[in-house]
Amino acid sequence: MGEKDLSNFFKTYLEKEPIFINKQVLQLNYTPEAIPHREEQINYLAGVLAPVLRLDKPSNLFIYGKTGTGKTLSAKYVTNQLLKIAVEKDILLKIVYVNCKLKRVADTEYRLIAHIAGEFGKEIPPTGLPTDEVYKLFIEAINQNKENKKIIILVLDEIDQLVKRVGDQLLYNLTRLSSELKNIEISIIGISNDLLFMDNVDSRVRSSLCEEEALFPPYNAIQIQDILRQRSKICFKEGVLDDGVIEKCAAHAAREHGDARRALELLRVAGELAERKNKVKISMEDIDEAEEKIERDKVVDVVHTQPKQFQLTLLSILTLVEQNKKPLVTGDLYDVYKDYCLKVGLKPITQRRLSDIIAEFDMLGIIRAKVISKGRYGRTREIRLAIPPSTVENIKSVLKESLNL
DNA sequence: TGTCCACTGGAAGGGAGGGCTT
DNA sequence: AAGCCCTCCCTTCCAGTGGACA
Question: In 3-state terms, what secondary structure has residue A190?
Fold first, then answer.
């Protein structure tokens, strides 16, 4: 493409009727003005946090619910509103939100504390210090914080992931933090996707962290449609959506146990695809395509961020799934994996380690691995793909390229 | 009824990468 | 530089197990 062509391209792009008016509305971090079908939960959260306005420490709070049920959104919504009022009333309130699942940000106790300390302007190196040293630095940072906030609300999203990794000692340490702080109250809001997670936590810690609890049930298809309509009114030009598009997105998300986040993402990606194709409307096919693209991108992202051994494992899984219809098991996978190692010239990891990697892929939602017993023939994991088969070829070629195969 | 398979998953630890204090 | 202590990826060892089969 020459210079002239390109400038034409950009000009036509600008002249084109855009599908989106305000795409941000569909982005994950967007906080809408109203959150439909969550009034009850929001009122409850507001009630729990309100004592801040009287300079009292609010109770610790635990929020449960599956992904995409509005937990994070509601928590952010309520804390933002609270902060607004607090600022008006000159109340010294600081809200710290941390997603504990983010790799290399807060996926260990050390890094969680280091990250929170960062929020208070204290930089702590990503590795190297003893953990109690990190706590000490953190406490110092808060105590001599210039803003001198009186009340801190610590929102720990996906905290179940973190505690599963590092154990509940962490929670205990967090609950004890307040006693180390001068004139500063710290409240913790824990958010968990795992409804049963608190059952396996030390009872003393549990009672202190779960002074209040809120459950977020999944949305049903009708509710998701409401949510999609509400947002698409703001973000799309009128009449852009073909009939049934909203229903289709909602149905898809309802299949995924009422995950509104997925529905919104689906709609956004479908819009982007339609726009790129110079279409003026979003059709059913765009939704299908969007679904495929989302899955593919998710996996490709994993491919690029995970170590070689993960890539090799995934490639083995994809190869096996393609070859036979039957669900595959750990032993077969290990054999194929070792073959690939030979080809690539990498030292094979043990089956034990492979087992962990399989579990991680399961967590990432790329495969479904279920432990089953075949009686006489032992116990193993039954592994299935959790991504559309149509994306397999594409991902395989990405993998092979990355592995120089 | 017990056996026993093919693993699972916990525990401990190592060694390479790194940063702290002394 | 030494001596700690972190993380990350991995190994070794092993007890535990659901259920088809004898």
Answer: strand
